Predict the 3D structure of the following.
Amino acid sequence: MSALDLVDLERYPLTDLTSAAARALVADARRQMAEIGAAELPGFIRPEGIQALVADAESLRERAHPSGGRGPAYLGPMDQDYPSDHPRGHLMPYAVKAVGYDVIPYSSPLRQIYELPEVTAFVEDVLDRGPLFHYADPCGALNLAVMSEGDELQWHFDQTDFVVSLAIQSALEGGDFDVVPRIRDAENENYDAVASVFAGDHSSVVTLPMTPGTLLIFEGRNSLHRVSPLRGERLRHVGLLAYDTKPDTVSSENLRATRYGRTTAFAEPPATWPVS
Ligand SMILES: O=C(O)CCC(=O)C(=O)O
Ligand SMILES: [Fe+2]
């Protein structure tokens, strides 16, 4: 069986992107992208596929590395110290767990979906910004993000132009993907508006449903976003599929150390866990 069988090909004709149905779908996704910087593609994965992804996530979760603490909205190197009352100096709690690409077995349906050339071609078509490459980082190319009760991801801007996520399982309560679309742009940081979101004004927040099976293509560089605190026993599982418009891009050792707890990737996905 091919991982393509997990995709609802009737709704999302990935194998024939020139068909009228595919052109209409891509046009609609591009329209969503232009409007809110996010294209939501519900039902991308068929119900049987979701079941397979949930079982896979359950078997992968023990490979997740936890990280947490207090983090800023503006990620990456700080060019100067900002006071804590400035949005750049504002730190917020976060706690997440990440399974890196290097420990995801070849048999994993999540890995197989990521590695389908048809999926890359489809994302490339929707984004319309030239050829796309799989992110070349051995840990960061594909992640399973696992979140449990009390976990959350602080308000932040991404350092990449876009991310593609695949909703696998949602929490019983919370764990929402909250977005303030295009709150800033290259010319205007709009710090006052950012500060008011931090202070609890959620009037401009849009919550994207992330129903299991949804593929979400999201531009996070200028849209402030977070994952709200989770409640309840059910884990939240999301696949994070990374691409770049340039080949051979990798992440810093520093980022690998905090996110995955290792700077050197496994050469092959370990057969068993923990690795003895
Ligand atoms: O878990 C998610 O849905 C999104 C995570 C996110 O915003 C990120 O990894 O930058
Ligand atoms: Fe993000």
In short: Residues 20-36 form the longest helix (17 residues). The chain has a mean pLDDT of 96.
